[in-house]
Write a structure and sequence with these properties.
By secondary structure, the protein is mainly alpha-helical. The chain has 26 helices and 14 strands. The protein has helices spanning about 5-15, 30-35, 40-45, 50-60, 110-115, 125-145, 155-180, 195-200, 205-220, 240-255, 275, 295-310, 355-360, 390-395, 410-415, 455-460, 475-485, 495-500, 575-590, 610-625, 635, 640-655, 660-665, 670-675, 690-695, 715-720, and strands at about 70-75, 80-85, 90-95, 375, 410, 500, 505-510, 520-525, 545, 575, 595-600, 605-610, 680, 695-700. The protein has a two-stranded antiparallel ribbon. The chain has a two-stranded antiparallel ribbon with strand order 3-5. Helix 19 (about 575-590) runs antiparallel to helix 20 (about 610-625).
């Protein structure tokens, strides 16, 4: 492909995909500069250093508005970089809200506006622009890297696979957020036509998913590495390509894209209007109205490909009940279970610490190159990104008394979702949503009996609840006093709860803080306290904070200072996702039904519906790592029950990882879950009324609303104007 043809493709893309093509320099590399200066692509791609810069430039559009684990993004200007998808019915943010004193932000920027769909067609649009910019950069690279004479054939093939991966990944990010998008012709199109003739309509969801899956499959055969060293950890691997392919196919098999109400089980209040309304101008339906069960089998085969590579495993940390003075409390064994307690990992939890295994996975303790669970990450490229980075998640989660913002919190729904340490449900789980007088097996009318109880002095002194983390380096008296400040609603919970939830009375270690008295600080959220309600935006609306991503060494010496927050690596794709999706796909198939599929190398493979051994192969390791018993035979036997269990497991396992928002949409559960009223603690109570503080009440300043237009993000007015064949997502306007 010569320079002239590439230029035509770029010009055509300006119309077909609906934006003005622009390029940002990467070091000294700027593709427009090469065209403007009449330099040929041959001179660029013949030079290894410049070719490497071009590839880096193609990957550079994954940052900012395209981060998958982000802290809201930037809301400056027209709000094009707004990226709030890490927040949903599980986690919320209280800043960016000018109704509560944070006047620097626009009306659309608050959690409530996001949760109500009160944003315009022109906000959050940088992702669209940047994805297509990356697509074009990668396309040019794919077609020209072969002329390089300084690289070996193996290097060229690997580089081409990297470019193909990121091009398909951009399409995946677009599909997940905006729904079906135009797929640009790579070769064979006539780019000498007039702009109106080049305008490209949206491909169907199935066409988009198939294209992405096929491109990822091809990339997996071009890529040469299963693992990368620390210096190349952000480059994709064979497993990253296969994992993305599997995830995309799982989305394509899910109800929203595959038959809607005919796929799975849905309440009567859920409708399929989105699929009926989302059509191209020629009447083509962009979401399949017909259910095809075989799509679940195809996705299961793709997920099995990743598992069978034998490259990945869940990260675990060793059990230690002897060493004192470390970063974490002594290990606490889960309640005895005949199936798992006496066996070592991966068959049991005897030699692992479930709490540390989960906490260290996210807090920067383990580098991606040493983490067998990390399949794809952008590395720590977002360390200093105050709008998007994981460091920003930590800063906004830490209490004001510790120089944090104290604005990221959890809903009572999320807190209830975590299991007890023996795998049961917490007393009073979801009781606020029951009809008056109604009872369930889990909750026979007794609403949160422990809401008025705190750990007693005798219980604290005898360490009756060793699973509750306290300042493990403090004196016995300090430890007992800290335990007494913890409500019994928070005792006896599973390890992931303690690694993720900053409940009132939790401890922030801050082991690197220069002031020793700050080590092991216990924080409460009572009204009038340093971190409680004070008529300002910096308080937790629900009285429940977020601990995930916090490292025991993290501290903040001045507000907005990230110097002492450990580097965290974005968990864009991790192995737990593959495992849980594998069980999900198998569960949706007809029991015993055999499907003939192909593995990634073209070999025949049989996928059998609801195969018990294979379903356990997916979900059981996640449960073992969490220190939880397996499901019962009856729970495995019931497809609807197991589906609900899988959804609950995903909500817990991936809290704060940007997956919940999109899961609820692909399952078509958003109309139910996002319309449920948000509950939290009574944050208007002071420490003297701490039992009243622990009572669960509606949080009226956090919204819970879903309408069908919120299934997909709107397309901007400017993009619609440039492409006459581009249809808007249902419920959104075409112009001002």
């Amino acid at each position: 492909m010569n320079t002239k043809n590439i230029k035509h493709i770029l010009l055509a893309a300006t119309v077909s995909c609906g934006f003005a093509t622009t390029f940002t320099a990467c070091s000294d590399l700027d593709s427009d500069k090469y065209f403007d200066d009449r330099k040929t692509l041959e001179s660029v791609f013949s030079d290894k250093q410049q070719a490497d810069q071009w590839l880096a430039h193609a990957f550079s559009f994954l940052d900012g508005s395209n981060f998958e684990v982000a802290s809201k993004g930037s809301t400056g200007g027209d709000g094009g970089s707004w990226n709030p998808f890490n927040f949903d019915d599980d986690m919320y943010y209280g800043d960016r809200d000018n109704t509560f004193g944070d006047s620097k932000d626009a009306d659309f920027a608050s959690y409530n506006s996001f949760h109500e769909g009160n944003y315009s067609e022109n906000q959050g649009q940088n992702a669209w622009v940047r994805c297509y910019q990356g697509i074009y950069q990668a396309s040019i690279f794919i077609h020209n890297i072969g002329i390089n004479q300084e690289m070996s054939e193996k290097e060229i093939e690997d580089y081409r696979g990297q470019a193909r991966f990121v091009r398909a990944y951009y399409y995946w990010l677009l599909l997940r957020k905006f729904g079906p998008v135009p797929i640009m012709a790579d070769e064979g199109a006539d780019y000498t036509l007039e702009y109106d003739e080049l305008a490209t309509p949206r491909s169907t969801y199935e066409e988009c998913a198939t294209y992405i899956a096929d491109q990822m499959l091809q990339a997996s055969k071009e890529l040469k590495y299963y693992n990368r060293d620390e210096g190349n950890v952000m480059r994709p691997t064979i497993g990253a390509a296969l994992a993305t392919r599997a995830i995309v196919l799982t989305y394509a098999a899910s109800p929203l894209a595959n038959g809607q109400l005919k796929n799975g089980k849905h309440p009567a209040s859920v409708n399929d209007d989105i699929a009926k309304q989302l059509r191209n101008f020629d009447g083509t339906y962009l979401l399949s109205l017909e259910y095809d069960e075989s799509k679940w089998a195809r996705a299961a085969a793709a997920l099995k490909d990743v598992i069978d590579l034998g490259v990945y495993d869940l990260y675990v940390d060793g059990f230690d009940d002897q060493t004192t003075g470390g970063d974490y409390p002594l290990s606490v064994a889960p309640p005895y279970n005949a199936e798992f307690s006496d066996k070592n990992w991966p068959n049991g939890w005897k030699n692992i610490d479930p709490y540390k295994s989960y906490a260290k996975l996210f807090n920067g303790s383990v580098s991606p190159s040493n983490n067998p669970e990390m399949i794809f990450t952008r590395g720590n490229m977002n360390k200093n990104d105050h709008d998007n980075g994981i460091g920003s998640l930590v800063l906004h989660s830490m209490p004001v008394s510790l120089n944090g913002w104290n604005t990221h919190g959890l809903t009572q729904k999320m807190v209830d979702t975590y299991y007890t340490k023996d795998g049961g449900d917490v007393d009073g789980m979801y009781s606020e949503w029951r009809q008056p007088g109604a009872t369930t097996v889990e909750n026979p009318g007794n609403d949160r009996p422990r809401s008025t109880e705190f750990i007693t002095r005798s219980e604290a002194q005898s360490n009756a609840y060793p699973e509750v983390p306290i300042w493990h380096l403090g004196t016995s008296s300090q430890q007992a006093q800290q335990r007494m400040n913890v409500s019994k609603q928070y005792v006896g919970r599973e390890p992931r709860f303690y690694a993720s939830v900053a409940y009132s009375g939790s401890v922030w270690q801050m082991l690197d803080h220069p002031t020793n008295s700050m080590w092991g600080t216990q924080v409460t959220y009572y009204r009038a306290g340093s971190d409680g309600y004070k008529n300002a935006f910096s308080y937790l609306r629900t009285g429940i904070g977020v601990k995930k991503y916090y490292n025991p060494h993290d501290y903040i010496n001045a507000q907005n200072n990230y110097d002492h927050i450990c580097e965290k690596y974005e968990p864009a794709i991790r192995y737990a996702d593959i495992l849980l999706m594998y069980t999900e796909c198998l569960n949706e198939l007809t029991e015993g039904q055999a499907y003939q599929e192909k593995d990634w190398q073209g070999n025949d493979v049989v996928i059998t519906g609801r195969n018990l051994q294979e379903m356990k192969r997916g979900i059981q390791p996640v449960r073992i790592r969490a220190g939880l018993p397996d499901y019962t035979a009856a729970e495995y036997a019931d497809k609807d029950v197991l589906r609900a269990k899988i959804k609950r497991e995903r909500m817990i396992e991936f809290m704060g990882e940007g997956k919940r928002y999109f899961d609820l949409r692909r399952w078509m559960d958003a109309p139910i879950e996002e319309n449920k009223r948000i509950y939290g603690l009574n944050v208007f109570m002071t420490a003297s009324s701490k039992t009243d503080f622990m009572k669960v009440i509606p949080v009226y300043n956090l919204s819970a609303t879903f309408t069908d237009k919120m299934y997909f993000w709107p397309i901007s007015f400017s993009d619609l104007k440039r492409n006459k064949n581009l249809v808007q997502n249902p419920g959104w306007k075409y112009n001002d």
